[in-house]
Amino acid sequence: MNPATKKILVIEDDKDIRDTIVYILEEEKYEVIASEDSKILKSIDSIKPNLILMDNWLTDWKSDANGQQLSKELKSNPATSHIPVIIISAVSNIKEIAEAGLADGYLRKPFDLTELTDIVNKHIK
């Protein structure tokens, strides 16, 4: 299937990282929608992403919410449970965070560009 028909939602508060991810994925012919905060998840019904790449810590999140919890909410909701979620973080226990959040995968910062495209290609349907 043509990657151009696939839509990826990127939620990352670091502009440089967000811009890099968008650039790489657009070079791979994906349609990318990017946001610096999680408020965009309120529009998930209209966006209809095929995959979500989400930073674990965003500056807009309340102290009691993070990517792990948002992933768990997405995966627990029948309307969004089918959307693969990849959590991105620099923390050493990102694998455990992703598993606890029911995420489909994780990407540890700093990441190699090949790692990014590999995990996206693996999980996008």
Could you name the CATH class? Alpha Beta
Q: Please, how many helices?
A: 5
Assembly type of the chains comes to single chain
Provide the low-confidence segments as ranges: none
Proportion of residues in helical segments: 25-40%
Number of strands: 5
Largest sheet: 5 strands, parallel
Q: Can you walk me through this structure?
A:
It is a single chain. This protein has one domain: Response regulator (Rossmann fold), CATH 3.40.50.2300. The chain contains five helices and five strands; from the N terminus they run βαβαβαβαβα. It starts with 6 loop residues before the first strand and ends with a helix. It has helices at residues 15-27, 44-47, 67-76, 94-100, 113-123; strands spanning 7-11, 31-35, 51-55, 85-89, 105-108. The chain is 36% helix and 19% strand. The mean pLDDT is 90. It is an alpha/beta fold and 125 residues long. The chain is globular and about 30 Å long.
Summarize the structure.
The protein is α/β, with parallel strands linked by helices. Helix content is 36%, strand content 19%.
List keywords for this structure.
125 residues; alpha/beta; Rossmann fold; 5-stranded parallel β-sheet; 5 strands; 36% helix; globular
Topology:
Blueprint: E1 7-11, H1 15-27, E2 31-35, H2 44-47, E3 51-55, H3 67-76, E4 85-89, H4 94-100, E5 105-108, H5 113-123
Parallel strand pairs: 1-2, 1-3, 3-4, 4-5
